[in-house]
Design a protein that fits this description.
single chain; alpha/beta; TIM Barrel; binds NADP nicotinamide-adenine-dinucleotide phosphate
């Protein structure tokens, strides 16, 4: 496993993270298996949100931690807040009460990382800073980041923050590449050249901010995964060829394709299968060549100008 520094005051985090969005409907034993398999593979990073499973994902995870509190110190735990019953809400009161709920459900005293889940158009960066300051000074949150923001939204927020934003969690997979397309197709006049993300990848790289990729196997928004999907036959054939070459499985190659980006990357995977968690961990052990990376991009239906 490889590890990165999100922030100086929290332990190094594995480049593969376990997304806990889908564990809320599982049995406690399943969640225990997921946690132990991940830790055995060197994966110490767990990504939550207060809304996953209506709070049940954090609750089940917290029950496992309650049974064995020694697990906490082996983990880097992140959660998100800011989605409030059908609207986005970065008010101080909402951020603080959300974190209190998160800590209670997870049965822990502090979060290593808190992300603001989706940009609140009405946000007041100074008010967000007040919330962050209270959470940091009370020891409840050790670092802060965002999710689904473009570079301008990050810059606006950062301008009033006393804390450096450490991460931006964004949707990115071989079958969902707007973040990458706009850079490849600059000034072409093609739809793929439309600037949708405002140079966010470049901004993250320039500022050493971690890119956390969500839904690493999905196409569209939760429309399904491209592995073994007939609509992505060319991509699957190419993934298989590389899987055979590296002696791994296709999902491992798809995760490594994301890790191969020059940013500081964490891939947030969401499988509940121990075997697939092991596949994900292996993605940190290989390195695709640049030609293999571009061939996969093209096999996913993209062309280069
Ligand atoms: N910030 C945000 O706005 C945001 C939004 C969405 C998600 N997220 C984060 O990103 C994480 C990942 O999202 P996601 O669940 O959409 O990601 P994903 O890892 O792309 O997809 C997971 C789904 O694919 C299945 N799967 C995984 N590997 C497979 C394989 N090799 N073959 C067949 N099926 C496979 C899983 O089923 P099995 O369990 O059976 O393997 C699961 O149903 C979430 O848990 C969450 O932490 C963040």
């Amino acid at each position: 496993m490889k590890y990165i520094n999100l922030e100086y005051n929290i332990p190094e985090a594995s480049v593969i993270g376990i997304g806990c969005m889908r564990i809320g409907s599982k049995e406690k034993q399943d969640v225990e298996d997921i946690i132990h398999t991940a830790l055995d593979c060197g994966i110490n990073f767990f990504d939550h949100a207060d809304i996953y499973g209506g709070g049940n994902s954090e609750k089940l995870f917290g029950e496992v931690l309650k049974d064995d509190p020694s697990l906490r110190e082996k983990m880097v735990i992140q959660s998100k807040c800011g989605i409030n019953k059908g609207m986005y809400d970065f008010s101080k009161g909402h951020i603080i009460s959300s974190v209190e709920g998160i800590l209670e459900r997870l049965n822990i005293d502090y979060l290593d990382s808190l992300l603001l889940h989706r940009p609140d158009v009405l946000m007041d960066p100074k008010e967000v800073n007040e919330a962050f300051t209270e959470l940091y000074e009370s020891g409840k949150v050790r670092s802060f980041g965002v999710s689904n923001m473009n570079r301008f939204q990050m810059e606006l927020l950062q301008s009033d923050l006393s804390y450096t934003l450490t991460a931006n969690q964004l949707q990115l997979s071989l079958a969902h590449t707007p973040l990458i397309d706009e850079g490849i197709n600059v000034n072409t006049g093609w739809d793929k050249g439309i600037v949708r993300a405002s140079g966010t990848l470049e901004y993250l790289k320039q500022n050493n901010i971690t890119l956390q990729t969500w839904s690493p196997l999905q196409f569209g928004m939760f429309r399904g995964i491209f592995i073994e999907n007939e609509d992505y036959k060319e991509l699957n054939d190419r993934l298989q060829t590389l899987a055979d070459k590296y002696g791994v499985s296709k999902d491992t190659i798809a995760y490594n394709w994301l890790l191969r980006l020059p940013q500081k990357v964490q891939v947030i995977v969401c499988t509940t299968s121990p075997q697939r968690i092991e596949n994900a961990a292996k993605a940190a052990e290989i390195t695709l060549t640049a030609r293999e990376w571009y061939d996969l991009y093209k096999a996913a239906g993209n062309r280069l100008p």
